[in-house]
Specification:
The protein is an alpha/beta fold and 304 residues long. It has one domain: TIM Barrel. It is 40% helix and 17% strand. The chain contains eleven helices and 13 strands. Strands 3, 4, 5, 6, 7, 8, 9, 12 and 13 form a nine-stranded parallel sheet that branches. Strand 10 and strand 11 form a beta hairpin. Helix 5 runs parallel beside helix 6, helix 7 runs parallel beside helix 8 and helix 8 crosses helix 10. The radius of gyration is 19 Å and the shape is globular. Bound molecules: flavin mononucleotide (FMN).
Length: 304
Amino acid sequence: MDLSTRYLGLELKHPIVASASPLTRDIDGIRKLLDADAAAIVMASVFAEDIVANRSVLDERLETLRLASKQSSVPIVASLNCARPGAWVDFATRLQDAGASAIELDLYRVPSDINETGLSVEQSYVSVLCAVKEKVEVPIAVKLSPYFSSPGNMAKKLVETGADGLVLFNRFYGGDIDLDKMVIEPEYQLSTPYDIRLPMMWISLLSGRLRASLAATSGVWTYKEAVKYLMVGADAVATTSSLLKEGPHNLGRIIDGLRAWMEGRGYDSLDAFKGRYAAAHLEFPDAFMRSHYSDILTSESKDQ
Ligand SMILES: Cc1cc2nc3c(=O)[nH]c(=O)nc-3n(C[C@H](O)[C@H](O)[C@H](O)COP(=O)(O)O)c2cc1C
């Protein structure tokens, strides 16, 4: 059975990737994910702020990347978390030189100035991509949020600017207020399989319409979510929360589940079902999305 797929122009032995997290920050974590048979590993992001401040963590990250790329037969993708272009951009070259097979730009900022227009936010992201693209030759993926007035048009702009792939979507990690201590504390929640729905809809809408790879991130805990993402046209499917909770070996379980599901259906390659539910195959994608929305809102509650 052939589970191989192409992502960012790289050949992956199967579509299941470990996305950026504390597990991909050091060489021990990365080794565990390699042992669990990850098809590619996205390292934890290096933050633009750390690069500007020239923090010592950078040397450690570069060393980990060097070791990982030497020891691994699968692509190791470096990740940069950034919002605007700046002096930090040169660091992308160091990631490439340290052996990164590709670079993922994790674009994230909250436009807290209410005078800033959506167009200006979009332009700042496009400029980041342009600036990094000038520095490196390895493929670049952009991990973006769904919070644009027109996420599809933003995706198109990024691809036209040179993104080789898009990763849909990064999640919102905001602080919470601790009412006992009366302080704002950072807190994250692991995803659930329900979280596949928004990325799944957008991957369906974008698949086949952009000259770029699409990776899905959010909500993949079992082979089922992976299959659904592939069915709407994802080229690669990433998981983090499931690995943080269940351990790196969950990655192997997802791959085994995918293989067993394909066997049960008589599929011998991903092409047999990949993109079957891509909106490009639908005559009226807008109407399709909207009628589902109204069907859900007007249906009887399951609990009644
Ligand atoms: C603790 C934690 C740390 C993360 N660190 C990063 C990071 O450094 N860079 C990044 O792009 N995404 C980071 N993410 C986001 C994940 O890569 C992933 O996109 C997100 O968790 C959604 O996938 P999931 O539903 O499989 O968890 C992090 C997520 C968690 C939970």
